[in-house]
Amino acid sequence: VQLQASGGGLVQAGGSLRLSCQASGSISNIDNLGWYRQAPGKERELVARMRRGGITNYAAPVKGRFTMSRDSFQNKVYLQMNSLKPEDTAVYYCNADGGFYCRGGACTSQGISWGQGTLVTVSS
After folding, report:
1. Tens of pLDDT, residues 30-76
2. What is the DSSP letter of 63?
């Protein structure tokens, strides 16, 4: 499945942003949907991961501030980010891993897909 992330921007510390990730096919049967981020000079890290059954895990730095959700009818995944901090500044990527997706009546196994990334900058 192809993924396209959007919603990044510049926000002051304490503010909120909502990221969106549009999938090109059905996300209902994808094993794992996730959001990752990569700050300058650092490795890409997991932010949140939602399993097919809906159980969602969050990285410790964002727990209680970020919420991941999905709309299976629109094939979208969201990341609501509240109480943003300067250390949340990064390029955010959506990810799909495992299971299968369907499009136009045809279903295909899902490997690992990444969106193109959207930049979030939090000013102090």
Report:
1. 999 999 999 999 999 999 999 998 899 999 999 999 999 999 999 99
2. T
CA 93 to chain centre: 6
For residue 14, count CB atoms less than 10 angstroms from its CB and return exposed for 0-12, middle for 13-18, buried for 19 or more.
exposed
User: How open is the CA angle 34-114-87, to the nearest 5 degrees?
Assistant: 60
Q: Which of 42, 38, 51, 37 is nearest to 96 (CA)?
A: 51
CA angle centred on 71, ends 24 and 51, rounded to 5°:
90
Q: What residue has token string 């990752």?
A: 36
Q: Which residues pair with 99 in a beta bridge?
A: 30
80 three-class SS: strand
Amino acid at 93: Y
| Residue partners of 7: CB distance under 8 A and separation at least 6 | 17, 18, 19, 20, 118
The distance between the two most distant Cα atoms of the chain, rounded to a whole number of Å, is 48
Average pLDDT of the residues in 1-18: 97
